[in-house]
TrEMBL record:
Chain positions covered by the region annotation Disordered: 717-738
Protein name as it appears in the record: RND superfamily putative drug exporter
Lineage: Bacteria, Bacillati, Actinomycetota, Actinomycetes, Micromonosporales
Domain Membrane transport protein MMPL: 47-368, 500-704
Family: Belongs to the resistance-nodulation-cell division (RND) (TC 2.A.6) family. MmpL subfamily.
Organism: Paractinoplanes abujensis
Keyword Transmembrane helix belongs to the record: yes
């Protein structure tokens, strides 16, 4: 297959490039629509009680928790002063008539109830609910901010709440994406110039990376026509698309130049490159896609989106690397070495002498190297044991973002977000009152509001007020529990568990951000073991089919798991525990976003296997040729070490660029994956893999008789057998160059 592909590219070079250019332009045009088709959110399980309650509140009861919070501060210090009260009433009336606002609860329109006034009396709260689709809600938020936010004479208005935070997240991500590209692309080009020592060769991987990203945006746009896709997947597409395409291009271009140096005609060199490096790229990409595919099993569309985005960008990167790039190389021929940079000296032939020397040093002390590396990785992994999970809230935004400041001011001065509880089925007044009384006794509950009044500490503290009727419609009833703790916290989770444990003659569906967190954890916990099993089994099968060994796949899975645990431990130490928070400009919440470790593990596991295939393919090629284990190890490290480390540096630059993001969990995503790539390339692949392979000896490539027979029938010959020396049916002798 790869020989045929190489020959097709060589014979139809210009046609291949013309069709490829047309496809890239078309996908770029269509893919540009992805930015408006993607959605925020997606962190919850749509089949959970909390999600069902939210849908019932919005669709059937026309109610629910407010998603806009206006903190109105009296410039004179008293919200009940005549000027401030008049301004408060005016802005409340204006908000009521704003398009897209379904419900308004205002301190000044409800007779000045104390819960909506701060303890100092200097500020008051106006709550609203913006309805409609995500795009409609975002448009409503913009209208409210444009017309009401800021200084209004007697009062100053801040706009916060979940809808304002979501809108701010979208804008911040757009800025993050532009900044990351401005950082990553110049640095990547500089590194490629150093690696290839020539302008033409250095530009090729970057051009392939751009083509891969354009194609991946099209994939996202296409999926968004049929299902929900998270806006956060754009960052993965950009980082992974550029990184993988450059990784694969490094391997392709390096092998092509190696074939030219060996004296082969450019067309023959192209075919041989597709047969060898192209084959490695395809199966390396498949291992990445297999790991990312595990995310599709989770119910949250935030995680599923990364499966769509990740698999899509991997396939596009593979296609660009084994079709477009070989066609360009065939057209360029020896001109791939044009515009050489002076002053940059190449290593001696046959690979990097420094890497060969490093491999030789590792092989002399394999036990010491293994022990040292494992201890270091275990030390990095230790913080994982203290991981505490949570969902994102306003604190993931930069501290100077207005929506975050307003949301935090509302929580600080007026209490925390209420937990709506939907009452399913018929319920008598006495049953609802009994439930409210029991709920008000739950630890860390401030009060419970119902259509029949307010309860606190097991006692009825107030009768129904003007706002009480909002808790009942012809379609059903609901109530609200006001907690005394931060919504995203273990104490708040205990509140949800205690509320759900109350015995009632009706179904009580608890909603709100805390309940969503509880349900998200449950959804992830139920699926994660199966996703991990899929990754392990599929990876083992692929590596066995490639190399015919039982030990090599097992070792790869164990080492990857150890590497990624170390990366997660470092991220817990930094982001959950707050170390380096000032340096990296983020606010530590004491929690780790529940979805990010899964996402980072899947992506990093795939990338680690990517480099594993690069390295093992060359080792296996040399072992099959010589039958000597140590020679194969040294040759594999010497020939792939420069490529793997260069690829890791390029990919880590891309990820670290996204580590400059303003959104905390995307910062964690970029820094974590960048760190994982570097640990894998410089510690695991450069030291642990050769050390363990030295200790295993010939057992590296051993398999029982039944497994050998299976590999002979179904296995993949990674080395491609005897590489081509012809460009077509007529044989040609290789043309020696220089």
């Amino acid at each position: 297959m790869f020989t045929a592909l190489g020959r097709l590219v060589v014979r139809r070079t210009k046609l291949t490039l013309f069709v490829s250019l047309a496809v890239v332009v078309l996908t770029a045009v269509l893919g540009s629509g992805a930015f408006t088709a993607l959605k925020n959110g997606g962190f919850d399980d749509p089949s959970s009680d909390s999600a069902r309650a939210r849908v019932i509140l919005e669709k059937e009861l026309g109610a629910g928790s407010p998603n806009l919070l206006l903190v109105v501060t009296a410039n004179g210090g008293d919200v009940d002063a005549p000027e401030a009260a008049a301004a408060g009433r005016a802005l409340s009336q204006e908000l009521t008539t704003t398009a897209g606002i379904d419900e308004v609860t205002s301190y000044w329109l409800l007779g000045s109830p104390p819960p909506l006034r701060s303890e100092s009396g200097g500020s008051a709260l106006v709550m609203a609910r913006a309805g409609g689709s995500e795009a409609e809600v975002e448009a409503t938020v913009a209208r409210v901010q444009d017309s009401l936010e800021g200084d209004r004479g007697a009062v100053t208005v801040q706009v916060g709440g979940s809808a304002a935070v979501d809108a701010a997240l979208g804008h911040t991500l757009e800025d993050d994406l532009v900044r990351a590209e401005l950082i990553a692309i110049p640095l990547t080009l500089l590194l490629l110039l150093i690696v290839f020592r020539g302008v033409v060769a250095a530009l090729l991987p970057l051009l392939v990376g751009v083509a891969a990203v354009m194609g991946a945006f099209f994939v996202l746009w296409a999926f968004a026509q049929f299902t929900d896709v998270s806006v956060f997947s754009i960052n993965l597409v950009t980082a992974l698309g550029i990184g993988l395409a450059i990784d694969y291009s490094l391997l392709i271009v390096s092998r092509f130049r190696e074939e030219l140096k060996a004296g082969y005609d450019p067309k023959v060199a192209t075919i041989r490159t597709v047969e060898s490096a192209g084959r490695t790229v395809v199966f390396s990409g498949v291992t990445v896609a297999v790991a990312l595919l595990s995310l599709i099993a989770f119910p949250m569309f935030f995680l599923r989106s990364f499966a769509y985005a990740g698999v899509g960008v991997v396939l596009v990167a593979i296609a660009a690397s084994v079709i477009i790039l070989p066609a360009v190389l065939a057209l360029l021929g020896h001109r791939v070495n044009a515009w050489r940079l002076p002053g940059l000296r190449r290593d001696a032939e046959g690979g990097s002498r420094r890497w060969a020397a490093l491999a030789g040093g590792v092989l002399r002390r394999p036990g010491l190297v293994t022990g040292t590396a494992v201890v270091l990785l275990l030390l990095l992994s230790a913080p994982v044991l203290g991981t505490r999970f949570g969902n994102p809230d306003a604190r993931v935004l930069p501290a100077d973002v207005a929506a975050r400041q307003a949301t935090e001011a509302a929580q600080r001065d007026f209490g925390y977000e209420a937990l709506p509880i939907v009452i399913k089925g018929a319920a008598e007044r006495s049953d609802i009152e009994a439930y409210a009384q029991a709920a008000s006794r739950v630890s860390n509950v401030t009060e419970v509001d119902t259509r029949y009044g307010t309860w606190a500490g097991g006692q009825r503290t107030a009768g129904p007020g003007p706002e009480a009727e909002r808790y009942a419609t012809d379609a059903g009833q609901w109530l609200e529990v006001v907690p005394a703790v931060q919504p995203i916290s273990s104490e708040a989770e205990n509140v949800v568990h205690d509320l759900r444990a109350i015995d009632a003659p009706f179904d009580a569906l608890v909603s709100g951000s805390t309940a969503e967190l509880v349900d998200t954890k449950a959804g992830i916990t139920s699926v994660a073991p199966w996703a991990a099993l899929w990754i392990a089994v599929a990876t083992f099968a692929l590596l066995f089919l490639m190399f015919g060994s039982l030990l090599v796949p097992l070792k790869a899975i164990v080492l990857n798991t150890l590497n990624l645990t170390a990366m997660l431990g470092a991220m817990v130490w930094i982001f959950q525990d707050g170390n380096l928070s000032e340096l990296l400009s983020f606010t530590s919440t004491g929690l780790t976003d529940v979805s990010m470790p899964l996402l980072m593990f899947a992506v990093a596991f795939g990338l680690s296997m990517d480099y594993e295939v690069f390295l093992l393919a060359r080792m296996k090629e040399e072992y099959d040729r010589t039958g000597d284990n140590e020679t194969a190890i040294v040759s594999g490290i010497a020939n792939t070490g420069p490529i793997v480390t260069a690829a890791a540096l390029v990919l880590s630059i891309t990820f670290f660029a996204f580590g400059t993001a303003g959104v905390t969990f995307m910062k964690m995503f970029g820094l974590g994956l960048g760190l994982a790539v570097l640990i894998d390339a410089f510690l695991v692949r450069a030291t642990l893999v050769p050390a363990l392979m030295k200790m295993a000896g010939r057992a590296n490539w051993w398999a029982p008789a039944w497994a050998r027979r299976l590999h002979e029938k179904a296995g993949i010959d990674e080395t491609g057998g005897t590489l081509s020396t012809t460009t077509g049916p007529a044989a040609r002798e290789p043309q020696r160059v220089g």
